[in-house]
Amino acid sequence: MSSDLTAVAFPGRAGNATEVAATPKVATRTNTVDIAILMAAAAGLAHAFSTPTHWRWWQASGVFFAVIAVAQLGLAAALFFHRTSTKVVLAGVWSNVLVVSVYVASRLVALPGQPGMTAHGAPKAPGRSFLPAAPEGVGAFDMFSLVVELGLIVLLLTLLPSRTRSKVTSALMYCGIAFCAFAVWSVMSNGAIR
User: Fold this and answer.
1) Which of 24, 28, 60, 180 has a Cα at 20 to 30 A from 12?
2) In this structure, is residue 3 part of a structural domain?
3) Is 76 among the domain residues?
């Protein structure tokens, strides 16, 4: 009698274990993946927003920013659609490490091919004097993007299998050591340390 009451009280529900097991599972994302999606999208939108300004200053920089924006928004879309394979996550980690490295390098030394700037960032025009290419300044929007990208790298590392994560963090440590040596060299060669 109780099974009849259950059938009446909950119509359409499976009555036995085999029917319950046959129901499709809904794929869910973890909170870590959701936060990584937001961070990748935020970084991508920040680069998309900055692309026109960088294009006017130096076309190579504008193209670089556009590529970064597409890559980061593509990563956000891939994570959104449950594509968290090791290859996708590794591509996300290393591409964001590249972006952070270029950012830090551009604040330490002038990048190869970087054009000179006018005083106070005024538009280029005939008769205005140009300053030689120099390291770029640090701005609040830059720092926002940098913090988001560093956080994204950390979150993506947590999505990797433990053996792969161990190898990647070791490689990141060696890259960090090399980058610190580059930073010390660039500061010393610019005469900041005497």
Assistant:
1) 28
2) no
3) yes
The two three-digit tokens of residue 26, written as one number: 């809904």
Which element (helix H / strand E) includes 26?
none
| Structure confidence by residue, pLDDT tens digits, 117-165 | 665 555 555 555 555 566 676 778 889 999 999 999 999 999 999 999 9
Residue bearing tokens 């999606």 = 37
Percent helix, strand, coil in the chain (nearest 5)?
A: 70, 0, 30
Q: Are 82 and 88 spatial neighbours (Cβ–Cβ below 8 Å)?
A: no
**Model confidence at 15: pLDDT above 70:** no
pLDDT tens by residue, 54-113: 888 788 888 999 999 999 999 999 999 988 889 999 999 999 999 999 988 888 777 776
Domains in the chain, number: 1
* All residues at 6 or more sequence positions from 131 whose CB lies less than 8 Å from its CB, including other chains: 116, 117, 118, 119
Task: Specify the 3-state DSSP secondary structure of 131.
Answer: strand
Residue 179 counted as domain residue:
yes
This prediction's pTM: 0.73
3-class SS letters over 88-120: HHHHHHHHHHHHHHHHHHHHHCCCCCCCCEEHH
Domain range enclosing 144: 24-115+129-189
Q: Is residue 33 part of a domain?
A: yes
